[in-house]
Structures are given as C-alpha cells and as structure tokens.
C-alpha cells in the first residue's frame, strides 16, 4: 500500500493548475489508474491490457474508416503533385487547397514513407515543406528524408543534410544508420562507410544510447512500478542525459502513466533535473491521451519553471487533440502557444476555425476565442480566412450559420468583400435558408454595407438555382426599387430563363415589356434571343413578334432564324406576312427575308403554303427576279419528279 501511495503521488504531483479545471482529490483516482491503485497486484497480462486501453480512441468504425480514407486520398494527391517537376509554389498550393489537403506533421511523415523509392519526389516535397511550412519538420522527419537519401545512394546529399541536422541539434537514428550503411557497403563507398561509423561512433557499442534506452524501457514496461523497479534502474549505473530521457519517454508514449511515473521519479531521486527538452518530451506523451488534464498540469508546471513549449510539441499535441475531437483543448493549446516565443503560424488559425465549424455542434465561443487570440497578437483576418471557413461550412451543410460567423469576425474588425457578400447571398438563396438570408441582408444594411447590384444579382441567381420563381421575382423587384435598373440586365436574364424553364415564357415577356416601358431597363441582346426562341416553342407567336418591336426600340437587329424555322413548319401565310411587317426597318422589309422564308417552306415540303404567302406579298416581291426564279426552279423540280410516274 505504501508503494501504491507513492506511485499515485508521482502521477498526481503538480503545481497549481492555471486552467479552470477541477483538480481531483488525492482520494479520487481516475479510471485510467485502476491497474496501479488496485489493492491486489494484477498479473502482467491484465496489467498490460489496462494500459493498452489508454490508447484506444473513442471513435466509431465509420469515423475511423473515413479518417483512413481521407489520409489515403491526401497521400495520393501529394504523390501526384510532387511526382511532377518544375512546379512553382503557387501551383502546388492551389492544388493542395482544391483537394482540401491540410499539411500536418503526421501527413509529412506518411508522405515521405510513400516516397521511399522516389528520392526526387521526396526531395521536392521536403524542400517545399521546408520553404512553406518548416515547423512541420521535426527530427523524425529529417531522419526519414536522410534515410531516403542514404538508402538510394545519394551520398553527397546525405552528408549535406547531416550537417544541417547537426546545426539543429538532431542526431541520426539507428534505423537511418542501418538503411544507409547497407547501401553504402553495397555501392562499395568505403570512405562513406568509415565516416558513417565514426559519426555513429559510440552508439555502435553494446552500451549505445539506443541499447541503454531499450533496457530501461523493457524494465519499466515489464514490471509494476515499485521499489524493485527503482532499485534495478539505479543498478544500471547510468548517466541520465536529456537525450536518453527524451528517447525513453518517446518509447513509452503508449503507456503514458508509466512514462509520467518515470519522469517524476527521475527528478525526485536526484538523478536528473528536468529541462525544457525533457518537459517537452513528457508533454508530447501526455498530449496523446483522451483526457487532457495531466497534460495541462504538466504544461502549467513547465511554464512556471520558465520553459517554452517547442514548436514540435505544439504541432504533435494539436494534431492529437484534433484527431480525438478535443477541440476545446486544441483552442486552449493555441492560446497558450500564441503568448510564447514559438508562436503558431497563421495557417493554424485557419485550421482551427475550420475544425470548429465542422464539429458536431458549432461552438461560437471557441470560434470567437481563436479570432481574439489571433488578432490580439497583431494579426489581421483576410478574405482567404473567410473563404476557407465558408468552404468548410458548405462541406457539412451548415452554410446557414455563416451570418453568426460573420458577426464574430466583425467583432474583431473584419468585413467581407463585396465579392464574398455576393457568394454568400447566392449560397443562402440556393439553399433555401430564408431566415438566415434575411438576417444576413439585414446585417449588411445595418453595418453600412448596402448590398450593391452584384449582391442582389447573386441572390436572384441563388433563388433561380433553387427554382424558386416567387422569391426570385420578389428579389428582382426589390433590387430595381433600391438600385435602379441600370445594372439589372443579368438579373433579368436569370429571371427570364427561370420563367421559360417553367414554361412561363409569356409571363417572362410581360415582365420584360414592363421593365422596358416603365423602368427603361436596357435588356441584354441574349435575353431577347432567349425569349424569342422560348415564346415560339410555347405558342407565343404574337408575343414573339412584340419582342421584335422591343428589340428595334433598343437598337438591336431583328432575330430572324427562329421565326423562319417556326413559320416553315407551322406558320400560316398570315403569320408569315405579320412577321415580315415586324422586321420592316423602313417602308418595306428586305427581299432576302422573303427569299429565306420561301426557301424554308420549300425545304419542309409546304409548297402550297409558299404559294399562299406569295399571293399576299407586295407586288415588288411577287415580280422580283430572284423570287420568280426560285418558284420556277421548284416547279421544274416537281415536274421532273413526276415524269417517271407518268411513264
């Protein structure tokens, strides 16, 4: 029992906890410590099972499958992008954004694994990350890249990277050493083999740091912590360095309680005084847990001791928090890091905002907190931030929440551009978010950002996309009332198109006529052409003729082709005559109009209708040489066609 109380003390010892969490009583033991505090010492099998349970994520099978699929997709995208040479950073960033690839430490490691036999692609990828997001490059990542260079025979590049790693305080891992020396020996690079062995030097001996670390971890993993374990650790007669303790803690990451006991004991026993490096190593281990309490206690203790959180620690823990849906902890971590020396990048702000808006419940307090922390550190939000957030909202069918998002962003001084307002109006209109749309438009007006014609047109476009004719019409009338008709041409075309799709071409004509006569709206030529075609298809011949008059009044040439096609198939002689009068520019229409009509009649086999129309034409047409020649040729063709029958 005395040993068990000491183990608990090692686990729970901490300074005052700055986050607003309830510190557990020494007599209230977390369920994850049951295997340690049980009055009966468990068997090794049950003991190990207890610790394995600590690493199980509380996610459903479907969630795991989705994450795995998403990871595979991102690796495939990276493989495709970086297999192509001569691509600039802007092109790469555009491809990554369009495929929703978010660069994380884990993704960098997985990508390098996939490039193991493609060193050129690996170098392009590594160099791009180095230039654009260097904080993702940890000792582990450098060793992966070094291993790729070494195992593929790039000796010069290998040694160049070794020098870079030395400057950063990174060592060469045993795995990288093994892969590289095998290739160097195969290529008979005796000088490089000798140099590599000298580099790794002492670590090739039986008492190498890796061998020592292995013995320490085996001892801790294989036993329940107690006096005997402590005695055996002391009996190793080791000099516990920062590097050794860091490696031991990393190898115990799946057994965080044992790692924490070892971390506490090593200092209480007087064998080592913890520094920034070992605190960060312990923080990375505790950051893997589903509960963040022990992590935050350690972080508070580290801060009190005057140590900074390393960028690698922040990145790894942030990824773990997000994977476990611990978004509040992720935001608190971001806030903590932003007041330190190693501040997160601006991309981390966007990353967190996107994760918040796609969470099961939209937590506006967390969203606002990230914005506040970001802007209070001297940063400013941009349109790119809003675009990324809106894209995430769309992905979870939560675009109606955008007005709440905009309010929060407004509180820290951000105002969306007119283009962004237009995009939002379109999405809200097309998604049928009436309540959200009303709030959005009202908030725009109340903030002094009066919606312009582009915003109104986008809203009408959204309604038309949804097929809502009533709302589109109401919005168009409101637009003309507020903005006038000078920029309403495109909006009118959208509305006319929707009317016609719903087989309401005549109603569309009435709207166009009203806008021209009452509002002096300059209708687009394409709108007139669309309307003529749809009117003729929907039995609106007379209205189509009226459209020709409207076109002439606004200086457009008459649109003849659909009329000629319509008349040749179904029109009467009176219809044809009315058409020629409608296209008359001066006193009489052009002779070519009549000729085109006659030819169309003959092509469709309607000779009698052509004769009827000719009889009603003006004398100058009936006596025109081209017209007479056309009819004579058609008459001769008919006579020729009947000769065989008569014979």
Describe this structure in words.
Helix content is 70%, strand content 0%. The chain is mainly α. Among the domains are: 71-205; 577-636, no CATH class. The protein is elongated and about 125 Å long. The model is unreliable at 14-68 and 203-207 (pLDDT under 50).
Task: Itemize the secondary structure elements and their pairings.
Elements: H1 2-12, H2 34-37, H3 44-53, H4 61-82, H5 89-98, H6 105-114, H7 119-132, H8 139-151, H9 155-168, H10 174-186, H11 190-200, H12 209-221, H13 227-235, H14 242-251, H15 256-268, H16 276-286, H17 293-304, H18 311-323, H19 327-338, H20 346-357, H21 364-376, H22 383-395, H23 402-411, H24 418-430, H25 434-446, H26 453-466, H27 469-483, H28 489-501, H29 505-519, H30 525-537, H31 541-553, H32 561-569, H33 573-582, H34 591-603, H35 607-616, H36 619-622, H37 625-646
Helix pairs in contact: 4-6, 6-8, 8-9, 8-10, 10-11, 12-14, 14-16, 15-16, 16-17, 16-18, 18-19, 19-20, 19-21, 20-21, 20-22, 21-23, 24-26, 26-27, 26-28, 27-28, 28-29, 28-30, 29-31, 30-31, 31-33, 32-34, 33-35, 34-35, 34-37
């Amino acid at each position: 029992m005395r040993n068990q109380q000491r183990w608990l003390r090692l686990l729970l010892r901490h300074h005052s906890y700055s986050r607003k969490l309830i510190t557990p009583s020494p007599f209230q033991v977390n369920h994850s410590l049951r295997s340690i505090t049980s009055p009966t010492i468990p068997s090794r099998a049950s003991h190990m099972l207890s610790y394995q349970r600590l690493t199980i994520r509380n996610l459903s099978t479907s969630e795991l499958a989705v994450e795995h699929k998403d990871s595979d997709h991102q690796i495939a995208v990276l493989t495709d992008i970086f297999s192509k040479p001569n691509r600039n950073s802007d092109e790469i960033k555009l491809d990554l954004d369009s495929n929703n690839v978010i660069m994380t430490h884990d993704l960098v490691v997985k990508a390098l694994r996939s490039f193991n036999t493609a060193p050129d692609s690996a170098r392009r990828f590594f160099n791009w990350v180095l230039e654009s997001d260097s904080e993702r490059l940890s000792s582990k990542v450098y060793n992966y890249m070094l291993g790729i260079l070494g195992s593929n025979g790039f000796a010069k590049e290998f040694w160049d990277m070794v020098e870079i790693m030395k400057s950063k305080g990174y060592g060469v891992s045993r795995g990288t050493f093994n892969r590289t020396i095998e290739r160097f020996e195969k290529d008979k690079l005796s000088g490089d083999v000798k140099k590599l062995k000298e580099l790794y030097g002492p670590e090739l001996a039986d008492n190498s740091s890796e061998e020592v670390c292995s013995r320490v971890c085996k001892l801790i993993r294989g036993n329940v912590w107690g006096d005997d374990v402590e005695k055996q650790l002391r009996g190793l007669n080791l000099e516990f360095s920062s590097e050794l303790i860091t490696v031991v803690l990393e190898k115990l990451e799946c057994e965080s309680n044992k790692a924490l006991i070892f971390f506490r004991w090593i200092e209480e026993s007087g064998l080592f005084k913890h520094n920034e490096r070992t605190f960060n190593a312990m923080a990375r281990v505790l950051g893997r847990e589903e509960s963040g309490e022990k992590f935050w206690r350690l972080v508070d203790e580290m801060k009190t001791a005057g140590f900074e959180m390393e960028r690698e620690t922040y990145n790894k823990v942030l990824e773990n928090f997000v994977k476990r849906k611990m978004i509040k902890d992720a935001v608190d971590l971001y806030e903590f890091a932003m007041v330190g020396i190693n501040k997160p990048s601006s991309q981390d702000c966007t990353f967190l905002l996107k994760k918040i808006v796609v969470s099961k419940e939209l937590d506006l307090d967390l969203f606002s907190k990230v914005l506040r922390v970001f802007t209070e550190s001297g940063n400013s939000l941009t349109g790119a931030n809003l675009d990324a957030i809106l894209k995430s909202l769309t992905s979870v069918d939560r675009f109606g929440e955008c007005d709440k998002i905009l309010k929060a962003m407004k509180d820290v001084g951000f105002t969306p551009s007119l283009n962004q307002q237009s995009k939002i109006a379109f999405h809200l209109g097309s998604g049928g978010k009436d309540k959200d749309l009303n709030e959005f438009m009202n908030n725009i007006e109340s903030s002094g950002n009066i919606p312009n014609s582009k915003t109104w047109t986008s809203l009408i476009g959204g309604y038309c996309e949804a097929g809502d004719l009533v709302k589109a019409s109401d919005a168009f009338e409101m637009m003309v009332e507020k903005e006038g008709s000078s920029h309403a041409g495109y909006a009118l075309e959208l509305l006319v198109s929707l009317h016609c799709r719903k087989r309401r071409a005549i109603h569309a004509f009435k709207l166009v006529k009203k806008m021209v006569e009452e509002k002096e709206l300059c209708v687009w030529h394409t709108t007139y052409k669309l309307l003529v075609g749809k009117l003729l298809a929907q039995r609106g011949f007379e209205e189509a003729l009226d459209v020709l008059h409207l076109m002439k009044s606004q200086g457009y040439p008459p649109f003849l082709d659909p009329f000629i096609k319509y008349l040749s198939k179904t029109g009467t002689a009176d219809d044809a005559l009315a058409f020629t009068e409608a296209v008359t520019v001066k006193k009489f229409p052009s002779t070519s109009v009549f000729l085109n009509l006659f030819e169309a009649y003959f092509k469709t086999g309607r000779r009698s209708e052509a004769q009827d129309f000719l009889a009603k034409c003006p004398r100058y047409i009936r006596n025109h040489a081209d017209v007479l020649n056309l009819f004579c040729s058609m008459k001769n063709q008919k006579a020729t066609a009947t000769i065989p029958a008569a014979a």
